[in-house]
Amino acid sequence: MSTIKPHFFVGLSERLNMTVLDTIKELSERRGKTLRQVTDDLNFSENYLYSLKTKTPNGANLEKLADYFNVSVDYLLGRAEAKPINEPIDLAEVANSDDDAVWSRLLSSGGRPLTEKDKMAIKLLFSDKWDDITQKAKDLDNNK
User: Fold this and answer.
1) Could you tell me how far CA 134 lies from the centroid of its own chain?
2) CATH code of 25's domain
3) How large is the angle between the packed helices 20-31 and 59-69, nearest 10 degrees?
4) Predicted TM-score of the model (pTM)
5) Contact, 128 vs 94, CB < 8 A?
6) Cβ-count burial of 4 within 10 angstroms (0-12 exposed, 13-18 middle, 19+ buried)?
7) Within a domain: residue 6?
8) What would you give as a GO molecular function for this chain, any one (predicted)?
């Protein structure tokens, strides 16, 4: 029973210790991009991103980076713990988690917390534990 911490819910205290470069590396990795590709895509100078280890980008470049990664400027600066804007939620990751905090932060039904029945349905649909899914489907079929 492992506890996962989705990559897009790094706590605010952890984010405050990250440099802009750390955040860009994290976002690039999730997109499958190298820092070189990001630099080329945004027409930055060759070592510009590495300079962000010790300094903060100017407003125009912050906006370019935020738009490129589809996140807020506050997220880049480590001032926001919310997930990046429009970041997809990995339902298999959630379904395989037994951590109620993960469930309550990421999913709701009509603005209300999920019931245990809702959680079970999601786990059945999205869990990567196929043996469990097959057995539960058989159990459900036998209870008709």
Assistant:
1) 29
2) 1.10.260.40
3) 30
4) 0.50
5) no
6) middle
7) no
8) DNA binding
